[in-house]
TrEMBL record:
Gene3D superfamilies: Vaccinia Virus protein VP39 (3.40.50.150), Winged helix-like DNA-binding domain superfamily/Winged helix DNA-binding domain (1.10.10.10). Residues 233-304 form the O-methyltransferase C-terminal domain. This is O-methyltransferase C-terminal domain-containing protein. Keywords: Methyltransferase, S-adenosyl-L-methionine, Transferase. It holds the Pfam family Methyltransf_2. InterPro entries: COMT-like (IPR016461), COMT_C (IPR001077), SAM-dependent_MTases_sf (IPR029063), WH-like_DNA-bd_sf (IPR036388), WH_DNA-bd_sf (IPR036390).
Length: 453
C-alpha cells in the first residue's frame, strides 16, 4: 500500500525536527531547544544556518502548511488564512501599548509569577477585560503566556515586541502598519482598475502606494520629507531589525566563492547603507578595499563613519581587480554624486550601466545580491511544491511589497540572465545565501566580450 501524501508530509516533519535538534546540539554542545514560554532570546535563534539546518527549517515550514491544507476542510482553511489580519491588529495593539515592555519592567525575572492584567492595563491606559481578550488571542499563538488566571509573562515570541530587546522588531512592525499596510489595502482596487488603466500599468505613478498617499515623490522621499522625517528614521531602524531577524551575519555570505576574486582588489557596495553587508563581506576579503555607496541622506545620517564624495565609477577604471556588489531592492533608488537616480533595472539597462560597463575591465565582476522568485510548480517526487512552497513565503511577501510600493517586481534567475545578456554582462554563477525563509542569492556576472555599445 502506497504512503499517502499526508503521511509523507508527517515523515518530512519528523525528520526535519530531528535534523534541527541535532544541528542545535552540534553547534551548541549539550543544548536543547529553548522552552517556547521562556521570556528569552533563544540562543539557537542566531545559530548559523548551515545547509542541514536551513533545509530542515524550510521543510518544516512547507510541510506543516501543506499538511493543514491537505487535511483541513477547504472552507475552514481559507477562513483561517483570510482571518490572519486579526493577528496583525492584535499585535499592533500590544506594540503600540508597549505591553511586552510593561510586563518585562514589572516582573523581569518571573519572581512574581507574572504580572496581573489590572497592573498592565492601568499602565497602558487600556480596559483590563478588553486587553485580556487580546492577550488570550495572542497566547493561542504562543505570543505571551497566561501562567495563572489573569497573570501574564512574555514568551520567546513576545520578546521581539519589547523595544529594548536585542531581537526587537517594533520599528519594522510600525513601518508596515503606517506605510506598507495602507498601500496594501489599496492594492486590490488598483489591480482591478480597468477604467483608469491602473490594472495593466507598470508605471511607478500607478502603484498602490502612489494612489493611496498621493505624495508626488517616491516612498523614500515621502518618508524623509513628511512629518519631520520620523518615518525615514524609523525605516532605517526597521532595516537593521529585519537584517538581524532574517540574516545570519558574515555566515550569510559564506556560500559564494570569494577566493576566486583574488587576494586584493576593490569592492564597490552600491546600496550598502552604512556598510553592514560590506562589513560582513570584508571577513572574506581581508586585503580588499571596500567602497560603500548609497543615497546622500543615508551617508549624512551616519555619525560613526566618514563618507567622502567620489565619482560613481570609482575606482573600477583604475584598479586591476574590482567587483561591483549591488544589494538594492528593485524599488530602492540610489543617488550617485553625479545626481543620477536609477532603479536596479535602469541601472542594468540605462545610462549608469553603460558608464559602468565601459569602465569595466575583463577582471571586473558585477554581483547583484537580491531576492529571487521561482514559480510554485508541482514536484513529481515530493508532496512539497517545487520551489519549496511556504518555505519561500517571505520572498513572495517581498514581491507583493514591490508591487504595492513601486509597481515593480522581484525576478527569477531566468530573468536576471536575460537582463545581463541585454546589458553587456554574462551570468557566471548563482550563489544562494544562508537566509532561511528568504531566497536571496548573489547573481554574479562578468563582462560579455562580444557586447557592443
Amino acid at each position: 500500500m502506497s504512503t499517502s501524501a499526508a503521511q509523507q508530509l508527517v515523515e518530512l516533519i519528523s525528520q526535519a525536527v530531528k535534523d534541527i535538534e541535532i544541528d542545535t546540539a552540534t553547534q551548541l554542545p549539550g543544548a536543547t531547544t529553548s522552552n517556547i514560554n521562556s521570556p528569552i532570546v533563544a540562543p539557537e535563534d542566531k545559530l548559523e544556518a548551515t545547509p542541514k539546518r536551513r533545509d530542515a527549517i524550510r521543510t518544516l515550514q512547507a510541510s506543516t502548511h501543506q499538511l493543514l491544507a491537505t487535511l483541513m476542510p477547504a472552507g475552514s482553511r481559507l477562513i483561517s488564512i483570510y482571518s490572519s489580519y486579526f493577528e496583525k491588529v492584535a499585535i499592533d495593539i500590544v506594540v503600540t501599548g508597549r505591553i511586552a515592555d510593561l510586563i518585562h519592567t514589572a516582573d523581569p525575572d518571573l519572581s512574581d509569577g507574572g504580572v496581573h492584567v489590572e497592573v498592565i492595563s492601568e499602565k497602558a491606559g487600556m480596559d483590563p477585560q478588553k486587553l485580556t481578550h487580546v492577550l488570550r488571542f495572542l497566547a493561542l499563538r504562543n505570543i505571551f503566556c497566561e501562567v495563572t488566571k489573569n497573570h501574564w509573562i512574555n514568551t520567546r515570541c513576545s520578546v521581539p515586541l519589547r523595544t529594548d530587546s536585542q531581537n526587537s522588531i517594533c520599528n519594522l512592525l510600525m513601518h508596515f502598519k503606517e506605510v506598507a499596510l495602507p498601500a496594501l489595502l489599496e492594492f486590490p482596487r488598483v489591480m482591478l482598475d480597468t477604467e483608469n488603466g491602473g490594472a495593466l500599468s507598470w508605471d511607478h505613478s500607478d502603484s498602490a502606494f502612489q494612489k493611496h498617499f498621493k505624495p508626488g515623490c517616491d516612498p523614500f522621499e515621502f518618508m524623509a520629507s513628511t512629518d519631520g522625517g520620523y518615518r525615514a528614521e524609523r525605516f532605517g531602524k526597521a532595516m537593521v531589525e529585519v537584517t538581524k531577524a532574517l540574516g545570519n551575519g558574515e555566515a550569510e555570505y559564506k556560500s559564494y566563492d570569494w577566493k576566486k576574486l583574488g587576494p586584493q582588489g576593490t569592492l564597490i557596495d552600491v546600496g550598502g547603507g552604512i556598510g553592514a553587508a560590506a562589513y560582513d563581506i570584508s571577513t572574506y576579503l581581508p586585503e580588499w578595499k571596500i567602497v560603500v555607496q548609497d543615497r546622500a541622506e543615508v551617508a549624512k545620517d551616519e555619525r560613526q563613519v566618514s563618507f567622502p564624495l567620489l565619482p560613481f565609477t570609482y575606482p573600477a577604471p583604475n584598479t586591476e581587480r574590482s567587483s561591483i556588489f549591488l544589494e538594492m531592492k528593485n524599488y530602492q533608488k540610489i543617488a550617485s554624486t553625479a545626481n543620477i537616480e536609477f532603479e536596479e533595472a535602469d541601472f542594468l539597462k540605462g545610462q549608469p550601466e553603460h558608464r559602468l560597463r565601459k569602465a569595466a575591465k575583463p577582471t571586473t565582476r558585477l554581483m547583484i545580491c537580491e531576492t529571487t522568485l521561482e514559480p510554485p510548480l508541482l514536484d513529481r517526487n515530493s508532496p512539497i511544491l517545487l520551489n519549496g512552497g511556504m518555505a519561500t513565503h517571505l520572498s513572495h511577501n517581498f514581491n507583493i511589497t514591490m508591487l504595492i510600493m513601486m509597481n515593480a517586481e522581484e525576478r527569477s534567475t531566468e530573468t536576471f540572465s536575460e537582463i545581463f545578456d541585454q546589458s553587456g554582462w554574462k551570468l557566471q554563477s548563482v550563489s544562494p545565501l544562508a537566509t532561511v525563509l528568504l531566497d536571496r542569492c548573489i547573481f554574479e556576472a562578468v563582462p560579455n566580450t562580444f557586447w557592443k555599445d
